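This part of the workshop introduces the protein records we will be handling. An example says more than a description, so a record of this kind follows:
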Amino acid sequence: HSFPGSLDWTVSDRYLSLPTDKTLATYISIDATGQNVRCKTGTLSCHPSSVSDLPQWSFDGSSTSQAQGHDSDVLLKPVNFYRDPFFLVCINLYN
């Protein structure tokens, strides 16, 4: 008998056979209220070994109240990272 939460090995095998030459990096920050977490995930073509290997990203901060509409680009700058089991990147935000 199987139960609804049982693992279907055909599905599992499909994901286990995916290429491992890329890294999903989740950039994490605290939002403008100081009470919520925001994140942005991207695919990296390498396995970073130091913070300097991580790219800086940007986003439109006006939609999250982290920047004014006339100057809304917010830079995401990595300051640390953890492999747990996903690749978590702590960032600072710069406007």
Remarks:
- The chain has one domain: 21-94.
- The mean pLDDT is 79.
- The radius of gyration is 17 Å.
- The beta strands are 23-30, 37-44, 57-60, 73-84, 86-94.
